Amino acid sequence: MQLADLPFDIKKADANSVWKNCLTIIKENVKPMTFNTWFLPIRPVSFENNVIKIQLPTQFFWEWIDEHYNHILNKAILNVIGPEGKLTYVIADEKESESDLKISIAKTSEPLPTPTQTIKPSNGNTSAKDASYNSNLNPRYRFDNFIKGEGNQLARATAGAISDNPGETSFNPFFVYGGVGLGKTHLIQAIGNRILEKFPDKKVIYLSTDSFTVEFVEAIQSNRVNEFQNFYRNIDVLIIDDIQFLTGKEKTQDLFFHIFNTLHQSRKQIILSSDRPPKELKGMDERLISRFKWGLAADIQPPEYEMRIAILKSKAEEFGMTISHDIVEYIASNITSNIRELEGCLIKMLATASLNSKDISLDLARKIVREIASDRKLNLGIDDITKIVCEYLNVPENKVRDKTRKKEIVLARQLSMYFAKEYTKASLKTIGLHFGGRDHSTVIHACSSIEAEAKDDLQLAELLSKLKNKIELHYK
To answer: Which of 35, 162, 271, 289 pairs as cysteine with 239 (C-beta 3.0–4.6 A)?
Structure first.
């Protein structure tokens, strides 16, 4: 299909029509599975001056497409837009990026904004900046695709109450905390999206703490601090992600303290996320920590087994994947502490199956899970694992290196060896040396014994699961 064959005028086209015609060409040049996996999830953002901007779910999506289908994208851009056509991209949940296509790089001096919802300025006195700012919210983050479970029950219920009545509940500020990849960003942005749906005249803005700090520094450099303060003091709902990165930044903390006070006194809603609770924010102004405790602090825990199953099924449906329940159960049993890793596992399976034109099988799932587990084997040492196991079993750590055959000591030693083999890159010989100079055959026997007994001993299987969760918390 050539440009002349397309039923639209490129000079009058919008982003949707341009990308739709690009997809028509792409679809003719790739297999259906490849098209459904890698191109259907892409969303057009804008089309101006022969530049089509698209949104991709993850950085991995872009890297895969750029490596394997760059020539097809180039062909589509050339045929649809013409030789002057350019392409830029943004990642849905990361900072702005710029594409690396040889013929379609948009060399612009301005940053590429993430897809946003335009906010309507309220009536009254507003600055010129107020009239054109964006919420920075990702429209993909909604309550209806946020999987509920025991680990996020309180946070999810509170988020819903705030969305119905922002600034008027006792949950102000709302402080969400938890480990990496557990859905904090999804939840706090879902609040903002729901508020804009129900109250379109509300001024809602989401940004990371890093972005807030950078804006403040730029305001100082350009002598616009008053304008910066006034802008944020006129927000109805302020959502700031990763507030822990404010630690150690004294001037920014001081500024945020005054903005916080103004918003809170005006009954404006403040929503914050962090990787730890307020009391553990070392290097944070005590005045701020005190104010973070005024409302409600709710944690998000790693997803339980049933929730992991639900997340995998939901994500598989979102990606257009058909996978058996056995594969879902296997992944849910082996990736336990991080929602982002669950999604990453599915994407990697899709990529591998797509590249090799094979079906998604249990063997492929095992391979991908092993690779993900291998990627983690950089954060813990044998001594770290031994300490976790011994503390949990209430066994003196030094005893597992002795030659004692006491039952509780043997169990602690074998479990430590088992998890050391699973979570570190140490050789069997090295693991054995850590436990009183034992040889590699002892380590093999210990691991085999644990695996065999866990199949029939439900109590041991449950112990393995609990220890695994505790160990994996250390990867965050």
So the answer is: 271
